[in-house]
Amino acid sequence: MTEPLVIGFETSCDETGVGIVRGHTLLADALATSMAEHERFGGVVPEIASRAHLEAMVPTVHRALAEAGVSASDVDAVAVTAGPGLTGALLVGLAAAKAYALALDRPLYGVNHLAAHVAVDELQHGPLAEPSLALLVSGGHSSLLLVPDLAQEVQSLGRTVDDAAGEAFDKVARVLGLPFPGGPPVDRAAREGDRSAVDFPRGLTGPRDAPYDFSFSGLKTAVARWVEARRRAGEPVPVADVAASFQEAVADVLTAKAVRACRDHGVDHLVLGGGVAANSRLRALAEERCAAAGIVLRVPSPKLCTDNGAMVAALGSRLVAAGVQPSAPDLGADSSLPIDVVSR
């Protein structure tokens, strides 16, 4: 039997993503972003994001169908991010997905945004080993997940207790006078810097701290205070060195805890995902530490790490293949959908 053709809708934040997959094969990944509209505010404005999704949705669907070389009537199932995310933005995607599912008389699957970040790796590297461990790092999330069965069971081992790693990158970029979003500019600046120039703190790494939780608020504050002290003293701020030292502190904590979790749970496969997974130092340090620990590291291409429709379609395809019951027609958005709810 031919594998099902699944279309996925992602609108949890500022990216309007529509992806189309057949089984584990990616056919289309169309994306529209409103990032430029948020830049002057230094962060995503929910109302602006929601309006941008409304404007971009239909053209993005048409681009995805054209890229895949299929028509809407060829689709076998519709998947959509139901949470977590910005409520208004989620509702736009849900409305579009429901409309297509109803018009085409196809099953609808509301999926978890974080689980979708894990599922997207299957489009590049094939079926996921089970159990696997996933380290998801983005602007809104820093999570360690145990994945016994991606279609049925995902367990949270640890999460950020304050700022997510991506949020810390944005705030440090602002302190250093770098553009928003901060991840790519900090990464570029760090390539010219010394990672050991400043000994910034590693949050929640003491013997009494939660072994798998993350905290980046203190690190962000330490960077801001260090920079302010230099400026008060009339000394130049070595942007590249600060960026490299900050980035090293983030990558050090993330990879150390991920490897520790793999060892503690007897798991030898680690998936790295989320927008911050595109960071060059995080990827390099993860490869180094996983190799030393005998752990197989799987990292999607940078394009698939950021929010996209392909990841939603990938998880939808996995749910269809597993025979999971479709969502009810009155499926709603849940801005704080827990990770252990893979589909709704």
TrEMBL record:
This protein's record includes keyword Zinc: no
GO cellular component, one term: cytoplasm
Cofactor notes: Binds 1 Fe(2+) ion per subunit.
Residues covered by the Gcp-like domain: 26-313
Entries under PROSITE patterns matching the protein: GLYCOPROTEASE
Alphabetized UniProt keyword annotations: Acyltransferase, Cytoplasm, Iron, Metal-binding, Transferase, tRNA processing
Gene3D superfamilies: 3.30.420.40
Signal peptide residue numbers: none
GO molecular function, one term: iron ion binding
Similarity comment text for this entry: Belongs to the KAE1 / TsaD family.
Name listed for the protein in its UniProt record: tRNA N6-adenosine threonylcarbamoyltransferase
Species the sequence originates in: Geodermatophilus normandii
Lineage: Bacteria, Bacillati, Actinomycetota, Actinomycetes, Geodermatophilales
Chain's gene name: tsaD
